[in-house]
Amino acid sequence: MDLSVEIAGLELEHPVLNGSGTFDAIAARRAFGDALLDDFPFSMFVSKTITPEPRAGNPPPRIVETPAGMINSIGLPNKGLDGFLAQDLPVLGELPVPLCVSVMATSHGEFARLVDGVAAQDGVSALELNISCPNVESGLIVGEQAPETLSLLRTVRPITAKPLIVKLSPNVADPASIARAAEEGGADAVSLVNTLKATAIDPGTLRPWLGAGRGGLSGPAIRAVALEQVRSVAASVSIPVIGMGGIESGADALAFLAAGAAAVAVGTASFRDPEAGARVRAELEGALARSDFGSLSDIRGDPVPSTST
Amino acid sequence: MPRTADSKPRSDARVIAPPGRRLCEIVENRQAGGYRIFSAVDAAGPEPRAGQFYMLSAADGWGQRTGRPYLPRAFSVAEATASEGGLRLDFLVEDVGPGTERLAGLRSGEGLSVTGPLGRPFSHPSELVPGIAGAILVGGGIGLAPLAILRRQLAERSVPLRTLLGFRDREHSGGVDELFACCEVRLASEDGHVGHRGYVTDLLAVLLEGDDARSAAVYACGPPAMLEAVRALCVERGVVAELAMEAPMACGFGACFGCAVPLADGGYMRLCTDGPVVSSAEIETALVPGSGH
Questions:
Q1: Residue A212 domain-assigned?
Q2: Do B255 and A209 touch (CB under 8 A)?
Q3: Where in the sequence of chain B do the CATH 2.40.30.10 domains occur?
Q4: Which of B50, B56, B177, B236 is deepest in the core (most CB within 10 A)?
Q5: What ipTM goes with this model?
């Protein structure tokens, strides 16, 4: 069965990607060897977020298990733009799928420098803008404010013709308003959800468990919330939506596609099984063949208008 | 620039795992003092090197109808032996939470999902310092597990070795008769129920007083406070040491960046891919917040 999808002008073999920061293809190849490349789990690889300068990340502990999920406060450790281009990009270029590089900065100028530096590379097919960060000039979290999001897109859109995917935060009252701002600013697609703000208390000390105090929740615990946000956003924009949040099976992926996603991403499930993405794709293919729907595009329901609950 | 993971690749002799999680069958689960040893037959995986670990979860009763356990748990392999149907892997477990409770309760015939072997193994003494011939193994509590396979693999290469094992009390002890039946070990316990009354590091300190101390490398695994005592003692005496550490870990293959351990020269390593065996010189302390849970 044909599972191919087109996202922002990119022809992808199937609709299962990885969530940024949930799969390190370089480290995975170190653990599993080149066999990893023979049946690579994702149709496009989304890198961990890179920032203009290197970051060491947050102090431990960085993760804690919750019912049906986990909280993380990793703190975006990465080699910075120069380190990424020199050390990681050549290795990521050996992957058998297109590469999308996730980027984040805290000012328009730095964001522009990052987008320019990354988009100019031949091996990069698309960029994801991680906007769950403050703009130091305004003090506001870009992804929590529609005007901030629009303003950022106005800055970076003219820099490259390559697809720009905006990663949306779920920690807002109305994610659709942010998605519309991204679309207005020229984004080619949006992806959601990022993690939900969360905290864990150490039962022994009754103080925050995580080294950074708080973090973000992921896994099946957030799936129902993510599904509604994907539905809400898909009903509000005409650009493709990449849906994610606790997807662990083909049935989960089908639900996100039915809610309006054009593609899906597997994140925390890869921690449980490095081949979770490949399994989700196989299950999706089987479920689609058994369903009354002939193709992926038939699955997507008519947009369900938002009504008050 | 702050050090980030992967910035200093090291040579090591890790065994590469097949990609993905595979199903193994539990063939035995027996009491070992206050702990349990469960064994699974791995039909498809390669033989691990001592110090490597597996991410384990029960095939059933793990994140399906129940909310926890959800993530797989990292376990150093205690022994790996050829058996009918594949490699028999032994793991030592103490029931301390939802994950270890489920694993400790596995019955023969049940499925165990495994990913591995993963991570950087213990080095041969000669890989640590040329000319060093002997090994001193220091284990604390459940941390004796990887030392069992290390002891066998070093003995097979005719490395002279001494083994020191320590326990808190009778309830928190076990595995000596099962995993070290072959050989002489020196024991310590904080409550004095067996061996020297006190810490295993007391035994190590005495051993390192000897003239031949610098002819051996120390290999340790145990709770963070014990590892830190071993690290400090070895630094003081100028003895090379490798420590098998533990940190909260979601994936085991470098994806989640959860298992950060501070490096001596700044930044963090990912314990799953840069460890779990670390050189005592790489870290400033083995007391990492969140480790040992």
A1: no
A2: no
A3: 22-118
A4: B56
A5: 0.90
- Cβ within 8 Å, pair A221-B247: no
Partners of A209 on chain B (C-beta within 8 Å) are: 290
Q: State in words which class domain B125-243 has.
A: alpha beta
Positions of CATH 3.40.50.80 in chain B: 125-243
More confident residue, B186 or B63: B186
Q: Is the pLDDT of residue B2 over 60?
A: no
Q: Is the pLDDT of residue B10 over 50?
A: no
Residue A229 sits at the chain B interface (C-beta within 8 Å): no
Task: Say if A290 falls within a structural domain.
Answer: yes
Q: Which residues of B touch A30 (CB under 8 A)?
A: 254, 273
How many contacts (CB atoms, under 8 Å) link A and B?
171
The answer to the question of residue A120 being in a domain is yes
What is the pTM assigned to this prediction?
A: 0.91
Q: Calculate how close chain A gets to B250, using CA atoms only, in Å.
A: 6
pLDDT of the residue at B7? 35
Q: Is residue A127 part of a domain?
A: yes
Query: Using 50, 70 and 90 to split pLDDT, how confident is the model at B161?
Result: very high
CA A277 – CA A16 distance, rounded (Å): 7
Residue with tokens 């963090």, as numbered in its chain: B268
Asked if A195 is an interface residue toward chain B (Cβ–Cβ < 8 A), one would say no
Spatial CA neighbour of A136 closest among A100, A153, A111, A168: A111
Is A105 in contact with A140 (CB distance < 8 Å)? Answer: no
**Which member of A8, A118, A133, A257 is catalytic?**
A133
**Integer angstrom CA distances of residue A32 from A25, B33, B57, B131:** 10, 36, 19, 33
Nearest to B70 among A211, A219, A275 (CB): A219
Residue A101 belongs to domain spanning: 5-57+75-200+218-299
CB contact (8 A) between residue A57 and residue B4: yes
Give the H or E element holding residue A17: strand A16-18
The CA angle A111-A114-A163, to the nearest 5 degrees, is: 90
Domain B22-118 CATH assignment equals 2.40.30.10: yes
